[in-house]
Specification:
This protein has 125 residues and is of the alpha+beta class. It has two helices and three strands. Strands 1-2-3 form a three-stranded antiparallel β-sheet, covered by helices on one side. It is globular, with a radius of gyration of 21 Å.
């Protein structure tokens, strides 16, 4: 989340087998509860500076967005994303709020910033 720890896989190569007597009976699929999605952390720090870079992929078919956000406590958060033709700045900013990457108050500011970056880079291409 903070970008300073590498992602690591701690999964066991083989699942541990439980003795038959201790295993739980299978539940009726209709009665099984759907798992509730895990809540995301809410970002409390606000963005104080934003930088954006957009480049066309080698085959010139898709834009790659690199976004650098500097938060109040001087934390640098660098995000990257391959833009889809249907993506828009408002939806991207809302998604960043949803996943806890930016503060809710920064959503509109980031959407406006991204929209101007999209127009600037796409007009140069």
């Amino acid at each position: 989340r903070n970008g300073i720890y590498p992602l690591m896989n701690f999964a066991v190569s083989r699942p541990h087998a439980l003795p038959r007597a201790l295993s739980q009976p299978q539940e009726d699929p209709q009665k099984a509860k759907t798992p509730t999605p895990e809540p995301f952390d809410v970002e409390t720090r606000k963005v104080v500076q934003m930088q954006c870079n957009m480049e066309l992929n080698e085959d010139k078919s898709q834009w790659h967005l690199s976004l650098l956000l500097i938060l109040e406590d001087k934390l640098h958060r660098q995000l990257s994303y391959d833009l889809l033709p249907t993506d828009n700045s408002k939806d991207l900013a809302t998604e960043l709020v949803h996943y806890g990457f930016i503060h809710e108050d920064d959503c509109e500011k980031l959407a406006t910033f991204l929209e101007s970056a999209f127009h600037k880079h796409r007009s140069q291409a």
